[in-house]
Structures are given as structure tokens and as C-alpha cells.
Amino acid sequence: MAIDTSGVKLEDRPFEQVKEQAIDQLIMNYSHGILSAEAFERRLDVATEAKSHQELVDVVADLTLQPDSQYQQQRERSFSPQYQAGEDKQNENIISVLSSNQHSGQWLVPAEIRVINVLGSVELDFSEAIFQHQHIVIRVNNWVGSLNILVPEEVNVVSNMFNIIGSAENRAPSMGGRQAPKIVIEGYSVLGSLEVSLKRTVKEKFVAFANQFRGLFGTDK
């Protein structure tokens, strides 16, 4: 059986921990060509949407290949925020007046970002960003503009916005651990909008990693 059910009763174990084990098992077996792409995605749907421990056990019950050290190292590299030492970048001002401004790719994140947005559009994409600080503050002055913030799952986000006939929506699950970067958004929005969301869905993240890991073994050909 793929998930060890001996020892502590299955239903007494942390659910997210068991789910992680099941997903790792699926990726490991798919990457070695044991599961087809169709079977992998079908089972991944079951694992990510599971509501009970038993569903997770059942979805990997016939898989015997266990994640090894190479898998764990690759997973750590892929799912951990990128920190980089170097010249310390403390602050940055983003001013958008009747225009659009976008930060994306591997950009260096300062400790503080001040956004002044008047009738404009600003997008900050942190999915591939390089962090030097664990605590980042985004100070927002938003007048009839839109601010879109895209984050990966391992970055925590807190929104403390004051809205005047505006809207603010934080759809990031903040699944990062203690060492994960924490982004605090504060300020005000007048007749404007703020949206925080994931760059990729959880399923898209795991499929992309599985295909990346599969490529290491040449089984994607």
C-alpha cells in the first residue's frame, strides 16, 4: 500500500500531510512512466479535491514507487521562494497616471513598494520574483485604478486596505510556512479595485512540476 496505514490511526493524522504524501506519490509514479498523463491528471483531481483520509489512501493504493531524495530536493527547489543575497533594495516607487505598469519575471523585490495609481492599471507578479526580505510592505494610493497582485502558493499575503466605493479581494490561500515571505498590503482605494490571486491553480502547479520532473528521466518523449 502506498500510504502506510500502520501506527497512528489514519483519521488522526493531519489531513494536509496525508494529502501531500498522496500527491507526491502520484507525481513520482507519473514521472517514471508508471502512470499515463490521463490517469495522473484524473487521480490528481481526486487527491486535490479529497475530503477524507480514505480517499487519499485509495487513489494511490496500487502505486509502490516511493519519492526518493532526488524527488525531495527537486520539490524543495521548485516550491520554495527564491531568496538571493546581494545589494539590499529597500524601496521602490511605482507611479501610474492614465497608464499601465507591470512587474513580472525574476525581478528583485524591495522591502517596501509604494504604488500611486490614478486612473491607471498596475500588476505586480511575484510568481518568479527574487526576495531579499521576508517582510514586504506594499503601500497603496489607488484612485479610480486597478491593482492586480499575483502570488505563488508559498507566499503569505495580508491585506489591510481601506476602500471608499471600491473593492479589495484577497484570494491567495497563504500556504507558506514560517520562512516564507509575507506581503502586507495597506493603504486606500477610492473608486478603484485591488485583487490578490494565485498565478496558477494548485492543480496547474503540480502538473507543471510533474512534467518538469518527468523530463529529468526522459519519460516525456
The largest sheet, given as strand count, sense and whether it forms a barrel, is: 5 strands, parallel
- Relative strand content: 25-35%
What class do helices, strands and sheet pairing give?
Answer: alpha/beta
User: How would you spell out the order of helices and strands?
Assistant: HHHHEEEEEEEEEEEEEH
Number of strands: 13
Record the strand order, biggest sheet: 2-5-8-12-10
- Overall helicity: 25-40%
Radius of gyration: 20 Å
Name the poorly predicted regions: none
What's the quaternary structure here?
single chain
Task: Please tell me the overall pLDDT.
Answer: 85
Distance between the termini: 29 Å
Described by the principal axes of the CA atoms, the overall outline is: elongated
The tally of structural domains comes to 2
Counting DSSP H or I runs of 4 or more residues, the number of helices is 5
Describe the structure.
- With 221 residues, the protein is an alpha/beta fold.
- It has two domains: 10-81 and 202-216, no CATH class; 83-198, no CATH class.
- It has five helices and 13 strands.
- A five-stranded parallel β-sheet has the order 2-5-8-12-10, with no helix packed on it. It has a five-stranded parallel β-sheet with strand order 3-6-9-13-11, with no helix packed on it. It has a three-stranded parallel β-sheet with strand order 1-7-4, with no helix packed on it.
- Helix 1 (15-31) packs antiparallel against helix 2 and helix 2 runs antiparallel to helix 5 (202-216).
- It is elongated, with a radius of gyration of 20 Å.
- It starts with 14 loop residues before the first helix and ends in a 5-residue tail after the last helix.
- InterPro entries: DUF1707_SHOCT-like, LiaF-like_C.
- This is Cell wall-active antibiotics response LiaF-like C-terminal domain-containing protein.
